[in-house]
Each structure stands twice: as C-alpha cells, then as structure tokens.
C-alpha cells in the first residue's frame, strides 16, 4: 500500500474553509486549513503529511495511542471521556484512538474499563465521535478482550495490596476469566479456564458485533487489540497457548483465532473504513513470540483486509526483559515496513518529542507514530510539534489568540 503524499499547497488549498471565522466550533476543513498566502509546492515535513487510508484522509501522522483510563461504570463512556478525547481533537491530533473497549463484560481488564458489548453504549460514544469530527480528527476505537488478564484492579490501586485481581464484591468476574490455556499470567492474576470451541466462537462473534456498534457510533477506524498479553495475543504466543487442537501448536494454528476475527470483522465493517491491528511484536522472552513471527503475521493480515499493523511489544509474560529507551519498539515496525510493503505500519513507545516523531517518519521507519504518555503530559503536542517544525496548522478558533506569534514556513 502506497500512502498518499500531498504538498502543503495541494492539501491546504483543498481543505480551505470559505468562511472559517464564522464557525463557533470550526468545521473539519477549518481545522486543517492553512493560510493561502506563501504556500508553495514543497512537501510538508513527513509528520505533517496527510495520509489516505481507504475512505479516510488523516491530516497528519501524529496519532493518539489508546490508553486505558479506568473511568467507566458498566462500560459506559462518561463526561470524563468526552472531555479527555475532545482535548486531543481540538488540539490537532490526526487520529484519536479511544482506549481498549471490552467486546464482552468479561473482556474488560478491570470493572472500570470502557465497553462496547451492548447497544446502550453507542450513544455516549457517538457523542464523543461527533464532537471530535468538528475539529477534523479521525476517530478510532480499540476493540479488546482481556482474556486471562481480566478481572483485575485499576492502575491507580496498584501497590495497595498483594494481588491485582478484582473480587466479585469489587465488581470482578473471578469465575469467568478464560484464555487459550489454563495458565495464569502470574500469581497475582486468576488462573483462567481453558476456552472451548464454543467459547472461541462466541468471543470472535463478540468482536464482530462490537465492530457493528463502532460503525453505528460513527467511528472511522477500528483497531483489534492483539497485544500486551490480552486474549488475542494469548493465542499467538506459545508461552500462553499450549492447546493441542486447531488453535494451538503450530504458527498457523496459533494465528487462526486472530485471522478468523479479522474475517468476521471485515465482513461487517464497511469496506471504506480502515481496519488496524495492534500486536506485541515480541514477547521479549526466549521461546516466545518473535519479530519474525510478526512479519509472517503481517503478510497474512495484509491480504485479509488489515490496513495497518500497530507495533508494540511485551505484556504477556513476567519474565520479559525489555530494553526500554527512546523509540525502542521502532525497529519492529521498520522490519514489517521493509518486508511487507502491502501493509502500513505504526510504532509506539517512549516517543516524546517532535523531532523524534518526524525523524521516524522521514526516514521511513514507520508510516505513523502513536504517541501515548506525552499526550497526557501535553495535550497540545501536535501544536507544539508544528511550532518546532515550522509548520502552520489551524488552531481552533476559540484558542487562536493563544498562538505563539512567529513566522511559519510552509516547507
């Protein structure tokens, strides 16, 4: 897949709003608009080049990574979620990915995680999407199932007790934690029951049903959460999957669960809407899932209708030895990009400054960058990046007077 490259003149002239000053909440085109004067035909810095995937044109390559907020009851999005995701859209993020959302109630990580397992969830999610669209953001949602890492306590309670599992009195589901094999993540998590074929079919259908709800809520993109030791990745890794049937053993068998989900989701998810998959590109444990496995999986996904592979790592085994550092996961995205050109790549992990983002994209190490904690520290990260890289981007009309006055170049 070849991403669309657009010059500043082509893009901003195409997106110009004939009367941006009249909008109380500026339209999508107004947010993307640049001044017509001084534009030239030189390409923008790669981080700010728009990217077209199927029917969506995303105005830059700096995207908000899905991050659990543990702020929901019964899976419902709240006023917090509306404010949280709106701030990124209002401040220029190209794509905002809503956090891991359980496709089943037992698919949540904690009792306070977001959900999309019932139709009643659609309305509150739709409100978030509709507001973000007014600011030109493309909206995604990560569809997830926690598997053996479910029924645990929220992050802010870590360190307050010896175990991480949530009891039934705390809203947990100790009797309904399951995975590919009856292997606990560690002694702080419940030991899961081994899934039957009926369980597998039900979980796969839950992903498809959630995709239908995501479409009804107006989301532009869905991402299947196949990383960090949750259910999909538990099937992928030989460390957590000891099955002897058609879903275990060989590489082809272990990826079957995910590939069948992709097919079910792609069948109901509109063809004009992109489909992403996040994977842990390695277990960082000897004998586990590897970067080579990720490349092989990407080759399969590229012909199954997946548009982008979002490369993270780890989360499946406490023995993991992770060489954490700036951009430490980028090489996995680069390997996929080089060996599977038919699929787009995203990377994440200790990416904290604009020059780092632009270097990753300019050097072709990944097509896009998912930024996580830096957005929590600085919701205006995209605006800061534009200032540092000398690119003019339209601020929301209500905030325009706060812009640092300087001469922007359209490079």
From TrEMBL:
Pfam families, A to Z: Oxidored_FMN (PF00724)
Transmembrane segments: none
Domain of life, source organism: Eukaryota
CDD domains assigned: OYE_YqiM_FMN
InterPro entries: Aldolase_TIM, OxRdtase_FMN_N, YqjM-like
Region described as Disordered: 1-22
GO molecular function: FMN binding; NADP binding; NADPH dehydrogenase activity
Record's keyword terms, sorted: Flavoprotein, FMN, NADP, Oxidoreductase
Cofactor dependency: FMN
Biased composition (Polar residues): 1-12
Every NADH:flavin oxidoreductase/NADH oxidase N-terminal domain range: 48-388
PANTHER family: NADPH DEHYDROGENASE C23G7.10C-RELATED
Name this protein carries in UniProt: NADH:flavin oxidoreductase/NADH oxidase N-terminal domain-containing protein
Species, as recorded: Coemansia spiralis
